[in-house]
Amino acid sequence: MGEAPAFCFDNLQNGFSFKSKGFETSADVGDKTFVIGGANSDSTSYIGVQIYDKTTCKWVIPTVLGTKPKPCKGHSTILLNEDRIMIIIKGSTPDDCIWFLEVDTKYVREQKKVLGTEVVAWSKGMRGDAEKPVVISGPSGVGKGTLINMLMKEFPSMFGFSVSHTTRAPRGNENNGVHYHFTDRSVMEKDIKDGKFLEFASVHGNLYGTSIEAVEAVADSGKRCILDIDVQGARSVRASSLEAIFIFICPPSMRQLEERLRARGTETEEQILKRLRNAEAEIEQGKSSGIFDHILYNDNLVECYENLKELLGLDGSAATNHKPYPDPKGIDLPLNHTVSKIDNKILINCGTPELETTSKNLIALDVLGLKGGAPGRTRGLNVYSIDSFSDGLNEKLS
Ligand code: ADP
Ligand code: 5GP
């Protein structure tokens, strides 16, 4: 392709969204035109991305990060804040119809520097927000797993565990996909290189890491994510865009830590000694690094658990009033809708043209409260229906 496509306007409001032939849409950001789409042989839409640089008059194929939407029956495009393009997928399932192509966000700019190429990044849009994840760290044998299990048992609908990847061998009672994703080092190293991990670290001689998907999957299920990771991992998460609460668990003494590790009976003597050697540095860092918001001593287990619950605001009323986020209901869009943008609202007209002025045909997406984004999901999408043009946004769906 050597010349700019001949665009014809699709949705004229604001001149933001316009559509070319076939299944392509495009949006202008500065000197660049981002062209999204293309047709597959089975007449579904292929969601590719090309950039036309108006200063050089050249086409560029960017590095595309993240998981892109599935092939579909077409899509609409709206530019938001000059840094991301909202894509509304036609004929998809209600929970899979809103996507964002980030073209100039902080994450994309960072990746451009790292990769030295043009970069765009996909992020799936989700209704509702997610509660801040809880990062729990502490030396091996201090009781992190025990405390997390107690929390998940008492509040099964509230918390979900971020299942890490590790190259260490499973213990007798551990199941793949439940306690860890047990992985080959070469596979994990490739996934790390491909940007699939939020953090990773070498711990006691093995590689451990939290995939972006592990954390997002918990939030998608409407639960608050708990991460059991070492101090290096906590430091990386602290530096990432994930806002979390950081808790460090300390043993009452090194002697009791050793007793617990030995009593657990899951490591060889050599591994126990290695874990104890590392524990001293971990405790030192946990207490002094400024990474952690809270330090808890796990002397008496019941007391420590009560303190943990208090930190997380789990008094009786908070726990019983918990309503999972996000609303599991997605956005049900008919195939033939049109899209426009007014201020911070995206208006989706779901009716036939003759019915445009009657009620219930308009859905508004409020994009002011958007949070997160690539490499994870984009959350905080508020959805409203509009009863009539004069009434404005008077019925919140969620
Ligand atoms: P971690 O996940 O931090 O490596 P675990 O939760 O596996 O540690 O706990 C290590 C061992 O210590 C387990 O056998 C557990 O039952 C025991 N344990 C945990 N907390 C206490 C405590 N407060 N007092 C005595 N034993 C404990
Ligand atoms: P274990 O082998 O006992 O399950 O875990 C050993 C250490 O690895 C613990 O300190 C645990 O917190 C840490 N760990 C577990 N998963 C992760 C992870 O995904 N990332 C990091 N950085 N550390 C992890």
UniProtKB/TrEMBL annotation:
Its EC number is 2.7.4.8. Residues 131-313 form the Guanylate kinase-like domain. CDD domains: GMPK. SMART domains: GuKc (SM00072). Pfam families: Guanylate_kin (PF00625). SUPFAM superfamilies: Galactose oxidase, central domain, P-loop containing nucleoside triphosphate hydrolases. Keywords: ATP-binding, Kinase, Nucleotide-binding, Transferase. NCBIfam families: guanyl_kin. Belongs to the guanylate kinase family. PANTHER family: GUANYLATE KINASE, GUANYLATE KINASE-RELATED. This is guanylate kinase. It comes from Hibiscus sabdariffa.
